[in-house]
Design goal:
- The complex is a heterodimer of chains A (about 110) and B (about 120).
- In chain A, β5 and β6 (about 60-65) form a beta hairpin.
- In chain A, strands 1, 3, 4, 8, 9 and 10 form a 6-stranded mixed β-sheet that branches.
- Chain A is globular, with a radius of gyration of 14 Å.
- Chain A has strands at about 10-15, 20-25, 30-40, 45-50, 55-60, 60-65, 70-75, 85-90, 100-105, 105-110.
- Chain A is mainly β and about 110 residues long.
- In chain B, about 0% of the residues lie in helices and about 50% in strands.
- In chain B, β4 and β5 (about 45-50) form a beta hairpin.
- Chain B is built from no helices and 11 strands.
- Classes of the chains: A mainly beta (about 110), B mainly beta (about 120).
- The interface between A and B is medium-sized, with 32 and 30 residues.
């Protein structure tokens, strides 16, 4: 299959551990943030989103934290599984109310069995 | 499968030829987006439609690129006089318009190779 993200920052974790993937965004006018997972040969898959009026949102095994003061976004994955191995992208809308998304450069997550 | 569908999955063309890609969004979604992704990079926004109206275009969308969504359903992206630098994965996404933003749902892309 096609390889996504050949030279990306890599986070390597043991199966069962928690993973934290970080993202710094640049535009203080962004009011919508989202995390995607991308496996080789596939398009990005939606994980979780958060709006700027919140600082934390939880899903199934995932939590997104938003710190608007320092323009930082993180994705926490609990009890990481081999199937979580992929490239993870954060994205922001780049301007208040803008509908399109601007993506970051991604982080590769490798889960060791 | 009711996800976003893109065709073809792969396209190899010679420099200078024209190519056209098709995207069929999720049926109830009225917003449709085109992105381009090269190896090692995140997707880069090209353009988006709400229904048949093209509401935003990136500076990346040169005069050789044109996108249409004539009936507010499927969309096509055409690249004229292809160049080797056009080689990339072209991703389509759709979303359901509501007050505020909503997640984009991506297809698996069309991989373009220009020789």
């Amino acid at each position: 299959g096609e390889s996504v993200g050949l030279h990306l920052p890599t986070l390597s974790v043991q199966e069962g551990d928690n993973s934290i993937i970080n993202c710094a965004y640049s535009n203080s006018a962004s009011d919508y943030f989202i995390w995607y997972k991308q496996e080789s040969g596939k398009g990005p898959q939606f994980i979780i989103d958060i709006r700027s009026n919140m600082d934390k949102r939880q899903g199934q095994r995932v939590t997104v934290l938003l710190n608007k003061t320092v323009k930082h976004l993180s994705l926490q994955i609990a009890a990481t599984q081999p199937g979580d191995s992929a490239v993870y992208f954060c994205a922001e809308n780049g301007d208040t109310g803008r509908r399109a998304l601007t993506f970051g450069s991604g982080t590769r997550l490798q889960v060791q069995p | 499968d009711t996800g976003v569908s893109q065709n073809p999955r792969h396209k190899i063309t010679k420099r200078g030829q024209n190519v056209t890609f098709r995207c069929d969004p999720i049926s109830e979604h009225n917003r449709l987006y085109w992105y381009r992704q090269t190896l090692g990079q995140g997707p880069e926004f090209l353009t988006y439609f709400q229904n048949e109206a093209q509401l935003e275009k990136s500076r990346l969308l040169s005069d050789r690129f044109s996108a249409e969504r004539p009936k507010g359903s499927f969309s096509t992206l055409e690249i004229q006089r292809t160049e080797q630098g056009d080689s990339a994965m072209y991703l389509c996404a759709s979303s359901l318009a509501r007050q505020g933003n909503s997640p984009l749902h991506f297809g698996n892309g069309t991989r373009l190779t220009v020789t």
